[in-house]
Design brief:
Layout (H helix, E strand, L loop, with lengths): L6 H27 L3 H23 L6 H9 L5 H16 L14 H21 L15 H32 L9 H26 L9 H21 L45 H15 L9 H8 L3 H12 L3 H18 L8 H7 L5 H12 L3 H10 L1
């Protein structure tokens, strides 16, 4: 097989090979762990690898040989309209515990399917009817047409926005539903969505650079763009494969891009509870003071905030009330979401222990864990938010007094 090894083709070959390798490793990981999210990311990395293939093979001499040039012409390597949907459904598969592709979701793949079908039609016409280059008379690859490149950019931008929208809904939901929200905020989602944004903006960046340095717009100059693109792709692939990303909170999709309540394995009757309204709702609840006092009493008497995995479902069970009602009471009566409300009680408990010099027998982190926090980072952020000082600053102030 023709492949001219040189500075340009060899480096892209390395990153291309890594992308293909990790796409298969991610697929295998999905099979072993029965995690469908890995399938989506595997497909995304595979398409990213194919995206750089024409340039890697072009630098390896394929466009200079008619036989190999035909492969590049008639195989749609750059599936720009497929990258966005793959990221979009990958995000959903991470956040929804029981995500599955519905019939209506196939519309997201209509444009990529049409593009592949048109490529097959062009190949068939040129080789079996026209017997020559009718569609490729100008000698340029259709993957690089402006309409396709710009259209692909807009498609990816649309799906990035949709993915961010889903993540923000998830974020708002878990702050309303759990007392350990920061632990399950999925830092990984921020990483890969930011990486996807960079991949999207790279063409824009290089076009701006080209205005100042015209050499970057040449065939050789464009190599730097594809090298940087492939490096970011490899970073996403390797990071995803080597890190464990799991969904411990069971959130179900309502079917319209929203989330339902977390489901407790021990309380199946709560799976059909109506969805919580946003706490910005201005209509005051009847008997608000009654429920506020009841909530305060159960937290004071039973200290259930010490449960590091406390959820709104657990809390509502204790109160023998609907989760929607309790969430609204906390939102309206205390001006906090459930996560911040429970963490405030935990912080108060930590401060009480510190005021009693319990740190002489336990570390501050040990006290925090006893009071219901499940990580040092979450404790430090919650403490700073509710007290206005770091734990160390608070201790310094106590020692001075």
């Amino acid at each position: 097989m023709l492949f001219e090894f040189n500075f340009y083709s060899s480096l892209l070959l390395i990153t291309f090979s890594q992308g293909i390798l990790y796409s298969f490793l991610l697929a295998k990981k999905g099979v072993n762990q029965k995690d469908k999210s890995n399938y989506w990311l595997s497909a995304f990395i595979f398409c990213c690898s194919l995206y750089i293939a024409p340039w890697m093979l072009g630098f390896a001499g394929w466009y200079d040989s008619e036989y190999y040039r035909d492969i590049l012409f008639y195989i749609p390597f750059q599936q720009l309209f497929l990258l966005g949907p793959l990221i979009y459904f990958y995000t959903q598969s991470l956040l929804y515990s029981e995500f599955r592709l519905l019939r209506k979701d196939f519309r997201h793949f209509l444009i990529p399917f049409i593009y592949i079908l048109s490529s097959v039609g062009i190949w068939f016409y040129d080789h079996f009817i026209y017997n020559g280059y009718y569609f490729y008379a100008d000698g340029s690859d259709k993957d690089f047409d402006d309409w396709y490149q710009y259209g692909g950019f807009l498609s990816m931008a649309f799906y990035l926005i949709q993915s961010l929208r889903i993540y923000n809904r998830y974020r708002n939901k878990i702050f309303q539903e759990t007392s350990y929200a920061e632990v399950i905020l999925f830092k990984w989602i921020k990483i890969y969505l930011f990486s996807f944004l960079i991949l999207m903006l790279l063409p824009v960046l290089f076009r701006l650079i080209a205005y100042k340095y015209s050499a970057i717009s040449t065939y050789e100059g464009s190599w730097w763009y594809f090298l940087l693109y492939s490096v970011i792709m490899c970073y996403v692939a390797i990071t995803a494969y080597t890190n464990t990303v799991t969904q411990n909170l069971k959130l179900k999709s309502s079917g319209d891009g929203d989330f339902l309540h977390p489901v407790d394995e021990l309380t199946p009757d709560y799976t059909s509870i109506v969805e919580v309204q946003e706490y910005t709702e201005t209509t005051l609840l009847p008997e608000l003071d009654f429920w506020k006092q009841k909530i305060i009493s159960i937290l004071t008497d039973e200290s259930i905030f010490r449960n590091p995995e406390l959820t709104l479902v657990n809390f509502s069970e204790k109160l023998q009330a609907n989760t929607s009602l309790i969430s609204k009471v906390i939102n309206q009566g205390f001006g906090l979401n459930f996560n911040d409300f429970i963490n405030k009680y935990r912080v108060d408990a930590v401060c009480d222990c510190l005021d009693k010099d319990m740190q002489q027998h336990m570390t501050i982190l040990g006290i925090a864990l006893e009071c219901g926090f499940n990580s040092k980072a979450t404790f430090n952020r919650a403490f700073k938010k509710h007290v206005g000082k770091t734990p160390r600053e608070y201790m310094t102030e106590i020692n001075r007094n």
